[in-house]
Amino acid sequence: MVGYLGDSVFKDLVLPYLVELYAVVKPNHRIFHSDGTLQWIWKTICKEVDVLFSFDPNLDIDKIRQENKDIFLIGNIDPVKIMLEGKSEEIVKISWEKIRAGGKNFALGLGGELVSGTPEENIKVISYLQDEF
């Protein structure tokens, strides 16, 4: 839940431990995910930590890409507005927009947990798109 911390608190209290932790984890196994908005700390994560970055739907892929072209991104389909409440056509449209914006180091995924009650059809659509991409 580091998304609820400001950037300076994150840098002072969390980042040193993340760097130490990730130093002993294989690079392709370093995944950073935090529920909640990361709008205050995403730039620090992109600059300071070599991770696969799973991020929330409120962050703009294009802005992240401008900051760090090489970071591997995972996300950021909205689990409520798109997956729970959306229709399959909307999921396809949004997913392809995310895939195009994400570029070479990108995996399509949810920007949070799958919400209870998400229609099975929507889960099948996103699963199909993940397999195709």
TrEMBL record:
Domain Uroporphyrinogen decarboxylase (URO-D), chain residue ranges per copy: 3-125
Gene3D superfamilies for this protein: 3.20.20.210
Record GO biological process: methylation; porphyrin-containing compound biosynthetic process
Keyword Methyltransferase: yes
Gene Ontology molecular function terms on file: methyltransferase activity; uroporphyrinogen decarboxylase activity
Domain of life: Bacteria
Entry-linked Pfam families: URO-D (PF01208)
Keywords on record: Methyltransferase, Transferase
PANTHER family: METHYLCOBAMIDE:COM METHYLTRANSFERASE MTBA
Entry protein name: Methylcobalamin:coenzyme M methyltransferase
Lineage: Bacteria, Pseudomonadati, Atribacterota, Atribacteria, Atribacterales
